[in-house]
Amino acid sequence: MHAEQLSNQHGAALAAQYRALSADHLEHLDDAGAKAMATAGTVAVLLPGAFYALQEKKKPPVALLRKHKVPIAVATDCNPGTSPLLSPTLAMNMACTLFGLTPEEALAGMTINAARALGFELEIGSLAPGKAADLAVWRLESLAELGYWIGLPGPERRIFNGADS
After folding, report:
1. Does position 161 have pLDDT exceeding 90, yes or no?
2. Are strands 157-160 and 135-137 parallel, antiparallel or unpaired?
3. pTM
4. What DSSP line would sit under the chain, residue for residue?
5. pLDDT of residue 146
6. Contact in structure between 49 and 106 (CB atoms under 8 Å)
7. Which of 47, 94, 104, 131 qualifies as a FRET site for 57, CA 20 to 30 Å off?
């Protein structure tokens, strides 16, 4: 559900009431909405590209999401006019620099929590036996570099469904 982007209309709490998989944007989320999301297992999807492109001033309440242990996903929200963002690594960078996510939170937000927001966490989103996986391999010194470099070149290798490309 698209919720709490421009004001608090209590959409996140409504999404949680109906056990929605996710609520997106959330810049104006309040404590009651965060608690409801945590109880329902609704994933908070942060969209830093929309925040940036629309020159928003109010950031999503990351500390509130952490406090209530709401899973946080990060997405590009590729949307002409409001979020012309195509790069997952730039979305991770923006989530860290604009919203204060840690590199670990941003990576989880682009993988396992993103899969959970789509209802696919049992099939994809992490490396585990029985799960499908497409892999991208970067030559980096640390995980933090994925979200640090602006315009990080593409991965050194890509493996889709077990085949090198």
Report:
1. no
2. antiparallel
3. 0.92
4. -EESSSS--SHHHHHHHTT-SEEEE-TT--HHHHHHHHHHTPEEEE-HHHHHHTT--SPP-HHHHHHTT--EEE----BTTTB----HHHHHHHHHHHH---HHHHHHHHTHHHHHHTT-TTTSSS--TT----EEE---SSTHHHHHSTTPPPPSEEEETTEE-
5. 83
6. no
7. 104
Q: Quick one: average pLDDT of 1-19?
A: 96
Structure tokens at 1: 């559900």
Per-residue tokens: 35:
């608690």
What single-letter amino acid sits at 60?
P
Higher pLDDT, 27 or 159: 27
Contact assessment for residue 139 and residue 130, using Cβ atoms and an 8 Å cutoff: no
Structure tokens at 67: 């406090």
Quick: pLDDT tens for 53-96. 999 999 999 999 999 999 999 999 998 889 999 999 999 999 99
Cα end-to-end distance, the chain, whole Å:
35
User: Which residues does 8 contact at the CB level (< 8 Å), separation at least 6?
Assistant: 28, 29, 30, 33
Neighbours of 52 (CB within 10 A): 16
